[in-house]
Amino acid sequence: MLDSAQFTNARILVVDDQQANVRLLERILAAAGYANVVTTTDPQSVAGIVAEGEPDLVLLDLLMPEMDGFEVMQQLGRQVPGSTYLPIMVLTADSTSEARLRALSMGAKDFLTKPFDHAEALLRIRNLLETRFLHLALQDENARLEERVRERTQELEDELMGTRKESAHRRMLLAELAAEQTASWADAVGSTDAVGSTDADGSA
């Protein structure tokens, strides 16, 4: 069960070269209770922002000068590990099917055209964050299971090593016991032979 605090503290990165669009998204997100929103109007700063702390969601414009949204997605694809589920929602005025298909094929998880319905955008944002948190929880659980497997494997290896040492010790004791019995038997046989020889001499 996801905690509502996870959504409140979700780190959301807004990337749009238009300050008015950034402020609009800040207001929408703040009204919905999101308190950890990072924004930038410079797409070239995204790499540095992500390096400081990986966001839980990126809200990304496509039509930006110097570095457009597609280039930002390419950069994030190289920077963020493939095992990490980092959802990207594209918010753009480009309503062409080509832009939509290209963005989705490059890793965007959702696509909305401007102007967009605020309520719909918030529902989509929450859905993406929920998927993100479930993915992270699954990663944590897998890591715990792997650690338990490693610990149990080490325990079994230690037990096996102890069993081998005990078996080797038992074999050594059995060998010593067999040697002692052989020596005792040899002594007994030797004593019998000596008595037999004495008896033979006496009868003569």
Describe the overall structure:
This protein is α/β, with parallel strands linked by helices and 204 residues long. The protein has a single domain, classed as Rossmann fold (3-Layer(aba) Sandwich), CATH 3.40.50.2300. The protein is 64% helix and 11% strand. The protein has 6 helices and 5 strands, in the order αβαβαβαβαβα. A 5-stranded parallel beta sheet has the order 2-1-3-4-5, with helices on both faces. Helix 3 packs parallel to helix 4. It starts with a helix and ends with a helix.
Summarize the structure.
The chain is α/β, with parallel strands linked by helices. The protein has 6 helices and 5 strands.
Number of strands: 5
CATH topology: Rossmann fold
Structural class: alpha/beta
Major beta sheet summary: 5 strands, parallel
CATH class: Alpha Beta
What gross morphology would you assign? rod-shaped
CATH H-level superfamily:
Response regulator
Using the 3D structure, state the CATH architecture.
3-Layer(aba) Sandwich
* N→C terminal distance: 105 Å
User: What is the typical, i.e. mean, pLDDT?
Assistant: 87
**Radius of gyration, in angstroms, nearest whole number:** 38 Å
